[in-house]
């Protein structure tokens, strides 16, 4: 009977959840998913990628959606994430981007800048989702 207990302990340890923290690759992926959602008109999903359930965008969901009313297509080219920062169980990373949009009237736009993403370190929150990147801010300027 004793040997059964020894085998049960490793099974319990193996079954315990291991927190996985997002890294630079997931930061880039989030921005790519964000623009894919915008391109397909899934503004609810795109809005939810902003920190604090979308509030970090500085807009209500209705205003966020209205901001893309004249956009027909959008795509993003991400650069290599840089300037990772950490402090007090918080994590930030910057993702450089070039954004290309085509408006419904056919006009093309090009923006360049960066997104700052935020997440919590593993073990700080009881919500596993808090360890995943969310958009904290964006700084984009028109390229002429």
A few lines on this structure:
The chain is an alpha+beta fold. It is built from four helices and five strands; from the N terminus they run ααααβββββ.
Helix content: 25-40%
Any idea what the CATH architecture is? Roll
| Counted beta strands | 5
The secondary structure category is alpha+beta
What is the count of DSSP helices, taking H or I runs of 4+ residues? 4
Radius of gyration: 20 Å
Oligomer: single chain
Whole-number mean pLDDT: 86
Question: What is the strand content?
Answer: 25-35%
User: What is the CATH topology descriptor?
Assistant: Nuclear Transport Factor 2, Chain: A
CATH class (first level) name: Alpha Beta
Give unreliable regions as ranges: 1-18
Give a structural overview.
With 144 residues, this protein is of the alpha+beta class. It has a single domain (21-142), classed as Nuclear Transport Factor 2, Chain: A, CATH 3.10.450.50. The chain has four helices and five strands. It has helices at 2-15, 24-39, 43-48, 61-66, and strands at residues 71-78, 82-87, 90-103, 108-120, 134-142. Strands 1, 2, 3, 4 and 5 form a five-stranded antiparallel β-sheet that branches. It starts with a helix and ends with a strand. Residues 1-18 have low confidence and may be disordered.
